[in-house]
User: Which sequence fits this backbone?
């Protein structure tokens, strides 16, 4: 109920579960997800966590760029999305992580 305190451990459990779902979704969307550089995995997990599998799956050109290991194009496709403008500074930080890979 509203106003009822939630124990910190419960919040942590929910968060860890959500992260696991985001990772599993990335493994489904990106065929070789586990072989991608760590930085790219982190960016994709972050995007999956924010967007969810259905919306992340719509980033067809970005997905193709990831599969081709074309991280410049991945960054371009990230920027060419409504998500990029909605997220603000965080999207720029994630894009920078991609460009530094």
Assistant:
């Amino acid at each position: 109920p509203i106003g009822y305190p939630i124990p910190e451990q419960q919040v942590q459990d929910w968060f860890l579960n959500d992260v696991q779902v985001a990772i599993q979704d990335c493994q489904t969307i990106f065929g070789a997800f586990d072989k991608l550089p760590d930085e790219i995995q982190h960016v994709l997990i972050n995007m999956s966590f924010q967007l969810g599998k259905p919306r992340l799956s719509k980033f067809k050109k970005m997905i193709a760029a990831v599969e081709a290991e074309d991280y410049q194009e991945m960054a371009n496709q990230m920027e060419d999305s409504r998500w990029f403008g909605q997220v603000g500074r965080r999207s720029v930080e994630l894009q920078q992580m991609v460009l530094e890979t």
Notes: Residues 10 and 16 are 10 Å apart (CA to CA).
